[in-house]
Design goal:
Layout (H helix, E strand, L loop, with lengths): L2 E7 L4 H17 L4 E6 L2 H7 L5 E3 L1 H4 L10 H17 L6 H4 L4 H11 L3 E4 L2 E4 L6 H13 L4 E8 L8 H10 L2 E4 L2 H9 L7 E3 L8 H4 L11 E5 L12 H14 L3 E4 L12 H11 L2 H4 L2 E3 L6 H9 L3 E4 L2 H9 L4 E5 L2 H9 L6 E3 L4 H13 L1 H25 L8
Parallel strand pairs: 1-2, 1-4, 2-3, 4-6, 5-6, 6-7, 7-8, 9-10, 9-12, 10-11, 12-13, 13-14
């Protein structure tokens, strides 16, 4: 049986769940029901929500570590032996001898990766200089140079990159990929900014649109904009995000005073120990006068993908910062205005022909108001075009799975 390993998945996030679900659907169709294993940063947590998904630890969470049993005395002794072997007689940590002293989880994940046919670096946006990615790049080097397995950077947004000391490392891992499949052109420009220019790069769209055939809700063109799903998140990586709370509060006041009812819903909520946007929603609500608070509802539960689409379809529109809150709203049949906290969102909305319905959170409050007014005033025309927009995007991302069959010679 053809074996595929997906790495760096975070399916507990509703947006990433949509990405993974779409990826699994496409892989099963393209490769005729292959064996698929998903590696992630917390399989013990995720198994509670996805009992039918085969999950294990990402390599960077288990190499020289023991995440399941903890750092027992015996484990520490064995790891010390590995360090000494490496230091004094140059025994590779990946060698059979060194791995004799590895944890059960490391041995298991090594076996998964060494025995697979393809490795897919999961869809999303996490290789950029806001986050740390050195360990993930070490994993890709391990997969390429030691295991000699083909890997595919799949339906991703990459960058921005401003740390020049990382450019050589980044160029290496993109060049060693069989295919680099991007979901918007902004990422292509980020690659060019580090001097990368290779034939293995393709730009399509966000893979969540692959869900169109199986999950999209029928668009009701008779809707009127009355009840709006709204969402804001903390974005701690730039100073300009400090006034997000104030802007969000002012926007909510404006919408309520215009007669709209607001329901706070996020793709990130309802899981203890994980990011929860409902906490930020409560801060916004507390900033509103009591009389305006009565026009707001905060939903705090975690939804499955089907539940989230069904819930979104019951409202008339979406205004928010979560990219996949917006994309899933479109699949649920309601217009979406996205407040971009990263330029990946601007790029995706550009590719959809919806550039007028997306703007950066960095813009001033008057610009926020102007964009919202445009959304309200053009609601009906937007509503009537949702189906063709999502259908075209779904056809575009079908190419992603065909690209997974292309193989380049390992360098």
């Amino acid at each position: 049986m053809f074996k595929i390993v997906i790495i760096n998945a975070v399916p507990i996030n509703g947006g990433d769940e949509a990405l993974l679900k779409a990826t699994l659907l496409g892989l099963k169709k393209q490769f005729n029901n292959p064996s698929i294993l998903v590696l992630c940063n917390n399989p013990n947590l995720y198994k509670k929500f996805f009992p039918n998904l085969e999950l294990d630890w990402d390599w960077e969470y288990t190499h020289l570590k023991s995440p399941n049993s903890g750092y027992t005395f015996l484990f520490k002794v064995k790891r010390r032996i590995r360090h000494l072997l490496n230091k004094f007689i140059k025994v590779s940590y990946y060698s059979t001898l060194s791995r004799m002293f590895a944890s059960k989880s490391e041995k298991r994940v090594y076996k998964h990766l060494s025995g697979c046919d393809k490795v897919i670096v999961s869809a999303g946006g996490y290789i950029h200089d806001f986050y740390g990615y050195k360990k993930r790049i070490d994993t890709l080097d391990f997969i390429h140079f030691h295991l000699k397995k083909p890997y595919f950077i799949f339906s991703q947004s990459v960058g921005p990159f401003w740390k020049k000391e990382n450019f050589q490392m980044l160029n290496r891992i993109f060049k060693n990929a069989n295919q680099v499949i991007l979901r918007e052109s902004y990422s292509l420009n980020h690659l060019k900014s580090i001097g990368y220019n290779d034939e293995n790069v393709t730009v399509t769209n966000d893979i969540a649109f692959y869900l169109y055939k199986d999950y999209a809700r029928k668009v009701d063109c008779n809707k009127e904009l009355k009840n709006i799903v709204i969402n804001f998140r903390k974005w701690k990586y730039e100073d300009k995000s400090k006034d997000n709370l104030e802007k969000a509060t002012l926007l909510c006041k404006k919408l309520i005073n215009k007669g709209f009812k607001l329901t706070f819903i996020s793709t990130c909520q309802g899981v203890k120990g994980y990011v929860d946007d409902s906490e930020f929603a409560e801060r916004i609500l507390n900033n509103l006068p009591i009389v305006l608070q009565t026009q707001c509802v905060i939903l705090k539960d975690k939804f499955t993908l089907k539940e989230l689409l069904e819930t979104l379809s019951q409202y008339d529109g979406y205004i928010g910062m979560r990219l996949h809150g917006a994309i899933l709203s479109l699949l649920a049949g309601i217009p979406a205005l996205n407040i971009a906290y990263e330029d990946k969102t601007l790029g995706i909305f550009d590719s959809l022909g919806l550039e007028d319905y997306c703007f950066s959170y960095k813009e001033d409050i008057n610009s926020w108001f102007s964009k919202v007014d445009f959304f309200i005033n053009n609601y009906n025309s937007y509503l009537n075009n949702i189906d063709i927009i999502t259908l075209n995007a779904s056809k575009q991302v079908e190419k992603n799975f065909k690209l997974l069959k292309l193989n380049r010679l390992l360098k």
